[in-house]
Structures are given as structure tokens and as C-alpha cells.
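Hi team,

Filling in the usual template for the complex we talked about on Friday. All components are listed, including any nucleic acid strands or ligand strings, so the model treats them as one assembly.

SUBMITTER: L.P.
PURPOSE: interface mapping
COMPONENTS: two
RESIDUES: 570
SEQUENCES:
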Amino acid sequence: MFRHTMLFLGYELRLTLRNPVWPLFGILQPVLYLLLFAPLVANTTVGGTMGDTLRLFTPGVLMMIALFGSLFVGFGMINEIRNGYLERLAVSPAWRPAIVLGRTMRDMLVLVLQALLVIGLAWLMGMRASAPGVLVMLVLMAATGLLASGLSYGLALALRDENGMSQIMQFFALPLILLTGIMLPMSLAPQWMQTVAHFNPLYHAVEAGRSLFDGDFTDGSIPLAFGLTLALGALTLTWSVSSMNKLAG
Amino acid sequence: MIIEAHGLRKTFTAKRGRGKTEQVEAVKGVDLEVEAGQIFAVLGPNGAGKTTTIRMLATLIPPTSGTAIVAGHDVTRDPGKVRENIGYVGQAGGVDENSPGREGIILAARIGGMSRKQAETRSEELLTAFSLTEFADRPIKTLSGGQKRRFALAIGLVNRPPLFFLDEPTTGLDPQNRANLWDEVRALRKQGTSVLLTTHYLEEADALCDRLVIIDHGLVVAEGTPDDLKKEIAGDVVTLRLGESANEPAQALLSAEPYVRDVRTEDETLRVYVDDGEHNLPHLLRALEAGGLGIQSISLDRATLDDVFLRHTGRSLRDAD
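RESULT (copied from the run log):
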């Protein structure tokens, strides 16, 4: 079972490495935010120095990659259902959960690498963050990737339709981003928005990221973010794995 | 018997909008017995239940009722064991379009339990056997339909399954590639692999298979070797065009002749099934002349599986789609 998962992971990773332009393209938008939006914020009264702004801004940008990258991985799977690839895997001796697990692990790895690139860039731009904090943040990124790609594969297997899937993701993505405080801290928001934001798991992840980058490991948002992300990740992964088991037979 | 199926049924619940559902009986009770080492065809028009049948046998969908023992194991109780002993190539091929074919073959081999080294050796073997070596490292999506199909076959055969399922293997292939695929299927039989394939091409079933079933509307309507099935309805068929008004009297007239087995009207033509056509054609011509019936056109052919289909379902397979 573990062997099959590793086989699928290796296969998918080789595929990604053969075409690394897409994951690189995936961080282009967040990088543009870093380059073009962070200086803007730094010039306003909220920002303070460029370094401070980046420390505030980078964790949000990281969550943006997690959301916009991993949430879309399911699109490829719809095509794999249509051209019979998953069907063939389903009648092969492959342990079925491995088909999803291998992919999810690939997504988590890609996400962590993307995050490293973005953090590196922010560093070059003048951000100084706590190194252990950054490490823990990378783990949180991986957990967010688990949540997002589990959700994406689950949706792909349930809907099996690109149109329906893009509608649903459009519907969720924008409020999730706006209520995360990625662009600006939620402390600037009116009370009702702050209350709503507390129901957004990504909000806690961004808050946790900011505390971690500041080197503040005592903040309550950190265990909360880990707990929420891991619990929801376990839920979405279970959903996508059981959908795969029911793919046929 | 490599496949023994009894009373296989499959009912789907189809959505008909606004929460309404409808029960669709795709397969209504199919019995199949396939001997090891045979090429066995399931022939029928589109929508007859061929794909549903093969998908039940390959453990992709569970039967609503009925039993099937495939390669020695029960498809409902022990699907995992069945999967270890079959290869399956679906209608769409089922090859990962983004990776090179070699990667796909190696992955399938390793999933089947081979070591990396064994998998590499096996993939070389298959690439050579299917003349795919020069395309092995190009992404599948850049290849032609025939090349993709060969990769699909290679992946399906990687673990040397004793039983190989092919769902509409030649649909969408040009005549050259179709002939090549037939040769590849025959080569499998030579190696002792049993093959179950579905097709809606009569020529394919006729040229390729040892035995076949004809299915229509989810039921088996005929079963046997191609030759036996054709013999059942007589060896030869005379196709006559006499003009609309002459069809009925001609049918009555010819049915009374001793060498005529059956007469059927199809559109404006009469199909007269006769034994020993070459010998009896002059008799038939004389009988028509004596009855005062003029002939617009006439031809003598060997009976085909389409005639078998016509006999059992009352329509031609070519019209049934």
C-alpha cells in the first residue's frame, strides 16, 4: 500500500519535473503581489518599513499560492476520468487510495517548494523573519495543501465536469481570500467582517503565519490554525479517497 | 472456463432532471462461457449492453444481480483477485496523455509487483513487440490514434494477464491500424492469452474470434462460432431487387422452393437464404421466371453475421445503431 503510494508519487513528480514551467507560472501572481502591492502598502500608514510590510504580507501571499495552486489540481483529474485513465487504474492491482494519496503528496511537495521560492524572494526584498518560524510555516503550508487538494480531487470526482467545478471554485475563492486578510490585516476591518473571518480556516493560517514570521510561537492562532487545517485536511482527503474507491465497483 | 457468467443484470438509475429518476436496464440477464485460450467476441449494436457487460466482468461496476467467475475468482466477492489476473483496455484507451508511454508501462509493471529492473526489461520487451521504441519517450498526447492504442495494449499486457478485456478496440482506427490490431490480438491467442472483446463491427467478429455472442437490448440473442451461426441460417444469400409490388408474391413463391431456407424483406430488396447457392441459383431464376417476376438486380453472397443478426432481431446490425 505504501509502496503503491510512493510509486504514484514518483510518477507524478517526474511528470511535474518534466514540465516545471506550470508550478513556476503558478507563483507568478503571488510574486507580482509581492513586487507591486507590498511597496504600495509600505507607503501607507499601516505598513511601516518595507521589511515590516513584507513580514506581514508574505504569509498571506503564501496562503494565496496554497489556495489558487492546490485548489485547481482537480481539473486534470476530470480529464483523467474522461479518457479512461482512472478507470484503468481502478481495475489494475493498484491500491486505490494510493492513486489519490500519491497525487496529494506531490501537491504538498510542490507547494512547499513554491513557498520556499516566494520566501526567498521576499528575503531578497528585505524581509527578515524568524527562521524556525519559517520552517513551521512550511509545515502549515503542506497541511493547507492537503486540505486544498483533497477538496479539489473530491470535487473533481464528485462533479466530473470542468464548468461546474470552476463555478464552485470562483464562488468560494474570492470571499476566502478577502476574508483572510491577505491584502491588509483584518484588524482594519469592521467588527462584523472580523467575526465572519473567524469562520475562515485560512484566516487563522495567515494569522498563524504572521506570528511565526515574527518569531512569536505562543500565539493562540498557531495551534488553532494547525488543528483546523489538519482536521479539515483529514476530512477532504477522506472524501476524495472514498470517492476514488467508489469510482467503480 | 476462464469466464463463467450467469444471469448478469445491471440496472442503472438515470437522472431525468428535476429530481426525477428512471430505471434503465442496460443488461437484462446475460450468460457467458468463455474457454481459456479463445478469442471471444461480444457483438451488438451501440447501446446493446456490451460495454456494461465487459465492465461488470472486469470488476469496474458491480452487477445488480447474477454471478460471474472471472479467471477463477468471483467478481463481487473477490474483485482484487480478479484484477490481478486481467488486463483491461477501455473504449477511451485509458493512457495518461501527459507522460511518455515508457513511464506508463513501467508504472503499471511496478504496480503489478515488479522491481524497477524487471519493469524496465519488460517495458523494453513490449515496446519492441508493439514497434513503439521510437515513440517511447514522447508524451502520449503527441502520438497518433494507432500509436496510443498500441500503448494502451502494451500497458494492459504488462503483467502477462491470462485474460485480456478489450472494449471496442478498433473504433476510430483506420483500416491499416485495424488490421495490425487484429494481428496483435491473434498473437495473444498464440501465447495462450484468452481475449474477450466487444465490437459492433461484423467483419471484426467474423475475422477474429473463435466464438461470439450477439447481444441486443441487453440480452444474448445468439451464441456460437461464426461458422456455426452462419450455417444455421444457410450458407448463401441471394439478394434480389424486383420492384416493390413483386416482393410479396416472390416471397410466397420462393419460400415454397425446397432449397430455400428463409426469405426476408429488407427495404426494397429480398434476401433469400439458400443452401449451396452456386448450384441452386439457376433453379431460383427459373422459378422466378415461371412466376412471371422480372428481376432488376441480383447478387449471390456468402451469408454474414449481419444475416445472423437480422434473423434473430428482425433488423440489420447496420441499421440498429
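MY TAKE: The two ends of chain A are 19 Å apart (CA to CA). Chain A has one domain: 2-245.

Thanks, L.
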